[in-house]
């Protein structure tokens, strides 16, 4: 226990120091008000750094060291000690300095203070924490390296079930995409598995091979967008290992984005056409400002929005037809269908669109034909990579907060910290 005394003895309180196997020799305050706690180890002996044996032959003490510890009542705290030293009779009296469990050799902090810094770093920056804690920038980065892995620690996982693969641009405007692989646990918790330097098939496949064999049977679904590098990597990995049975699901979000863009392109074309042929007043009342109304699902429209949409469609029957096709397709994805039922309905929808003569859906129809199996796999368990999209937003926030991150290992650490920091270090 650490005793802190005020001007009178009745103002003294005792606070646990939180450091095992030491005796407190004295407590002092310097001119800045920092507490300097001098301690002495109660442990006898240490492990020889050369042969690994327990040694107990004393060789005095090493130099004084001072370690930053957890603050107390707003005051900085430093632990001061002279570590014991021992000789190894089996290694020509090789001298080893005792290191206690609560700090690491050459670290300027106790382990408890390193963890305190990690907690401060959640949703913050190294620069901010450096200023708030009055420690050097390099000291905070050193704590990150001591506390956080740069790759996934598989010991933290008993199952994977659902993994998501998506990309994000590491540098704005340069299209240097990196791949982020995550998993959604049974309780809904999202964990980062990897931040890969690119989105090539070989890179993703190489990562999948690093997954421990004990987790392979738990892999059930891979949610991804329509990037062949991801889907082919998953399929080749499953084909190479009979114990892996994993289905690729093309995320519903990316499918919907694809077919909704078809309607949006037609809206823009019709807006330009109607602007030329309608009187200015009628154009202003009927067409202008309709973008967000058309983008909304029909079930979410207000009565006033439905009326405005009806007036617009009077001038553009083709846009009404495209809007109807879009709503029909959205309704199919909302239905509780089997994979086979979903496939039949999607093919029937595609045939109806082709017979209508509308060409704005041509790109999506090609996508639907090429990715039909992966798209209808969504109907098996109605899984999507929405959790991956949410993580991508977090990546963008981290990049803005940290003024850009250029190393994938650093991004992995910061993602891990934002996702797991409170659970691990609080």
Structure description:
The chain has 426 residues and is of the alpha+beta class. Helices cover 45% and strands 21% of the residues. The chain contains 16 helices and 16 strands. It has a 5-stranded mixed sheet, with helices on both faces. A 4-stranded mixed sheet has the order 3-4-9-8. Strands 7-10-11 form a 3-stranded antiparallel sheet, with no helix packed on it. α1 (111-121) crosses α16, α6 runs antiparallel to α10 and α10 runs antiparallel to α11 (339-356). The two termini are 22 Å apart. The model has no long low-confidence stretch (mean pLDDT 91).
Question: What descriptors fit this protein?
Answer:
426 residues; alpha+beta; five-stranded mixed sheet; four-stranded mixed sheet; 16 strands; elongated
Spans of at least 5 consecutive residues whose pLDDT stays below 50 are none
Instruction: Let me know the average pLDDT.
Output: 91
- Topology, number of strands: 16
Structural class: alpha+beta
Q: Please report the number of helical segments.
A: 16
Coarse morphology: elongated
Strand content: 15-25%
Computed CA radius of gyration, to the nearest angstrom: 31 Å
End-to-end distance: 22 Å
The biggest sheet, with number of strands, parallel, antiparallel or mixed sense and barrel status, is: 5 strands, mixed
> Helix content range of the residues, please?
40-55%
Oligomeric state as shown? single chain
Q: What is the topology, as strand order, of the major beta sheet?
A: 14-13-12-15-16
Please outline what is shown here.
With 426 residues, the protein is an alpha+beta fold. It has helices at residues 111-121, 126-133, 137-147, 201-210, 228-240, 252-277, 280-286, 291-295, 303-315, 317-334, 339-356, 362-370, 372-376, 378-381, 386-401, 408-425, and strands at 2-4, 13-15, 22-29, 35-41, 46-47, 54-55, 57-61, 65-72, 75-81, 84-88, 94-97, 161-169, 177-184, 190-196, 219-224, 247-250.
């Amino acid at each position: 226990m650490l005793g802190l005394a005020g001007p009178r003895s009745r103002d003294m309180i005792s606070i646990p120091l939180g450091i095992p196997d030491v005796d407190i020799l004295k407590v002092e305050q310097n001119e800045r008000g920092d507490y300097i706690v001098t301690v002495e180890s109660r442990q006898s002996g240490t492990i020889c750094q050369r042969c690994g044996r327990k040694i107990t032959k004393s060789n005095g003490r090493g130099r004084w060291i001072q370690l930053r510890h957890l603050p107390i009542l707003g005051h900085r705290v430093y632990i001061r000690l002279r570590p014991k030293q021992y000789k190894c009779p089996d290694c020509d009296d090789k001298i080893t300095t005792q290191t206690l469990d609560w700090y690491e050799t050459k670290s300027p902090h106790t382990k408890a203070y390193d963890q305190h810094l990690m907690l401060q770093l959640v949703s913050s920056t190294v620069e901010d924490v450096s200023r708030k804690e009055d420690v050097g920038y390099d000291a905070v980065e050193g704590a990150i390296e001591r506390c956080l892995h740069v790759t996934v620690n598989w010991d933290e996982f008993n199952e994977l079930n659902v993994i998501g693969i998506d990309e994000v641009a590491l540098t704005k405007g340069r299209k240097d995409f990196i791949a982020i692989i995550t998993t959604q646990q049974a309780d809904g918790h999202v964990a980062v598995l990897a931040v890969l330097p690119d989105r090539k098939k070989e890179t993703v496949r190489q990562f999948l091979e690093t997954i421990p064999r004990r987790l392979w049977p738990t892999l059930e679904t891979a949610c991804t967008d329509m990037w062949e590098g991801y889907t082919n990597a998953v399929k080749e990995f499953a084909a190479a290992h009979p114990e892996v049975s994993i289905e690729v699901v093309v995320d519903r979000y990316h499918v919907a984005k694809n077919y909704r863009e078809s309607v949006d392109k037609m809206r823009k074309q019709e807006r330009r056409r109607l602007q030329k042929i309608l009187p200015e007043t009628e154009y202003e009342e009927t067409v202008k400002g309709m973008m967000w109304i058309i983008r909304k699902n029909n079930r979410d429209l207000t009565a006033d929005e439905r009326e405005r949409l009806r007036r617009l469609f009077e001038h553009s029957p083709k846009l009404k037809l495209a809007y109807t096709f879009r709503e029909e397709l959205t309704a199919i994805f909302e239905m509780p269908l089997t994979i086979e039922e979903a496939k039949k309905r999607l093919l029937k929808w595609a045939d109806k669109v082709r017979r209508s003569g509308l060409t704005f859906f041509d790109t999506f129809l090609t996508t639907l034909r090429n990715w039909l199996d992966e798209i209808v796999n969504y109907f098996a368990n109605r899984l999507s990579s929405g959790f991956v999209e949410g993580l991508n937003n977090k990546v963008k926030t981290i990049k803005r907060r940290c003024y850009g991150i250029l190393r994938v290992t650093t991004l992995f650490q910061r993602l891990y910290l934002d996702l797991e920091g409170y659970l691990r270090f609080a």
